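Quick question, first post here. What does this chain look like in 3D?
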Amino acid sequence: MSDEELKEEQEPEEGAESIPDLDEGELHTEWLGEEEWDDEEDAEEVTEEEVPPFVDNGDGTISDTRNKLMWAQSDSYAEFKYGINWFEAQDYCESANEKQLAGYDDWRLCSTEEAKMMFSFTKRNLDKDGAEIHIDDIFEEGGGHNTWTYLEKPDYHQYAEKFSYVTGNEMWEHKDNEYSHVRLVRDAGEHEDYEPEWRKDTRKFQR
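> Answer (accepted):
Ran it through. Tokens below.
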């Protein structure tokens, strides 16, 4: 076959639509259902934004929707009007369970990580002295500015960890310190268990 015959064979027939030359960058691929995908993504974003991080349950409890926790809306200062030590914090927790606060009997002291989940420098609340603390204003005003946790110092069990809602820092405090408070929490779903194994043998804490 001559070059002229090959050229004639490759040329499009008369009346056939020719495909315009496109640069690689100009090529656009349209995916089936592309518009519906965009709508789904937008709907998911709106749904996430509409869910607030903390929800007032109307029964003296606050749900942490992000971390599947439920907090008591007020702390120990609301009941005692004074600071309590770590042992009294345990008694306060057991009393809340005996009374079935808001219908639940599994209230406990929080871990340090859980206490941090409530803290945010962008949030503002007022403590018992009218000073600023950094927790959501959905929680009751006039409480303490810190909370005991159940974490005890390894090899030095006379100390427990306390978290400050003023600075966002944790610190080891002697368990007999009476200038502290406690905010109770419970699990509202599957959640990592921070409590050490050796502490699960009893719910009673002796001096």
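Strands lie at 54-56, 61-64, 69-72, 108-109, 125-126, 132-133, 146-153, 156-164, 170-174, 184-187.
Residues 191-196 have pLDDT under 50 and may be disordered.
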